[in-house]
Amino acid sequence: MTNRARISLTESYRTPVRYDRRMSIPNTSHSAPSALGVPPRDAAPPHGIERLGAARLATERTLPIDPVLGALLGAEGLVRGQAVACRGPAARSLAIAASASAVALGSWIAVLGVDDLGVEAVADAGLPLERLVRVRPGADGVRAWADLCLAALDGFELLLTCPPGRVPAPLATAIRRRLRSRAGCLLVIGDPRGLEIDVELSSAGPSWHGIGPGTGRLVDRHVEVRASGRRVHRGGVASVSLPGCDGRLRAAEVAVSDPIRTAV
Question: Measured at the alpha carbon of residue 93, what is the angle toward residues 251 and 88, in degrees to the nearest 5?
Answer without folding.
Answer: 95
